[in-house]
Amino acid sequence: MEFAIDSAVAILGNTPAALRAMLCGLGDDWVRANYGADTFCPFDVVGHLIHGEKTDWVPRARMILDCGEAGAFEPFDRYAMYAASRGMSLDDLLDEFAALRAKNLRAIGEMNITPKQLDRRGRHPQLGPVTLRQLLATWVVHDLNHLHQIAKCLGYQYREHIGPWREYLSFIDR
Question: Which among 90, 81, 93 is positioned nearest to 26, based on CA atoms?
Answer without folding.
Answer: 90
